[in-house]
# Entry
Amino acid sequence: MCLAKCLFRSRRCQLADSTSAIGVFSITGGEAGASETQIILAAGRYAAQKLGKLRLSIFGRCAELRETELRKKFRDLPVELSVEGVLESTQVVQKLSACDVLLFVRGPISSRRSSAIAGIACGLPVIAYFGSETAVPITDAGVVLVSPDRPNDLNSALVRVLSDAAYRMGLAARSRAAYQTHFAWTAIAARFSAFLNTR
# Structure
């Protein structure tokens, strides 16, 4: 996945206020998407009740299909909601770079999940479910892993990441390091070169 040269520019534009920002990169279609939407709603509601005003940026495939429900359920909460569909890669980088954390609830995280890797590449902490495919190099990044069977753990993890700046910065540093070591094109090319030289 090419995320352009701006991956290592400042992760977040300095805004006039310090409103915490949560990113969600795409929602699955069908029944799975309905379940994911409920998880996003519960996490956003919990964080807003604990922390106050939030920005929630949801974009990517099928996101726009859930906009009406999301706006209705967040209507009485201090949540500034932005919902957009499929975006160009540079726009994805801009959206992620304006967030403090990526909330990934499209099943367990693994190295096959390009939308999660996009967040890692942009130096974001990622909150995600673990599963049988969750392993290195994903676990080297700043990923907070929670069980899909314990929904309150995800909500609590989100609040901790948003409210504890030192913790959040440590996770972000791990994501940047993991990107450089495992996911950057230079790292991938070096591994291919080493493999070909052994043949």
